[in-house]
């Protein structure tokens, strides 16, 4: 699955505010997922490379993408890429590069990269106010 991140809005295929039932039944119909009792607000589509998070109203508010799925933003590939390469592209576009213990969180965009090594392992997008 290929997803193009839209700042604080999700993606075209998975816009924030979409009810969980609609995501499961329409958007990701037939895809295998699990929920964990320790994280009931998330659906884990591990074999598809997605974790989807929902708010108290059970609407989509967070998307994490990892291989085999792919994420892009503004023409930049965000998954399974060298961290330095992607961060350089963000800097060229004038975005501040806030590093924090293995991740980069671009709060003005609602985009975060998890990269404990030299490659981006996952890219996420979240709705405005998610971390408030």
Task: Write up what this structure looks like.
The protein has one domain. It starts with a strand and ends in a 6-residue tail after the last strand. It is built from two helices and twelve strands, in the order ββαββββββαββββ. 27% of the residues are buried. The strands form two sheets. It has an eight-stranded antiparallel beta sheet, with no helix packed on it. The protein has a four-stranded mixed beta sheet with strand order 2-1-7-8, covered by helices on one side. It is mainly beta.
Give me the strand/helix succession.
EEHEEEEEEHEEEE
The overall average pLDDT, rounded, is: 91
The stretches of 5 or more residues where confidence is low (pLDDT under 50) are none
- Number of helices, counting only DSSP H or I runs of 4 residues or more: 2
Tell me the major beta sheet.
8 strands, antiparallel
Share of residues in strands? 35-45%
Radius of gyration: 14 Å
* Gap between N and C termini: 29 Å
Strand order of the largest sheet: 3-4-5-6-12-11-10-9
Give the overall silhouette: globular
Fraction of residues in helix: 10-25%
Q: Would you tell me the structural class of the helices and strands? A: mainly beta
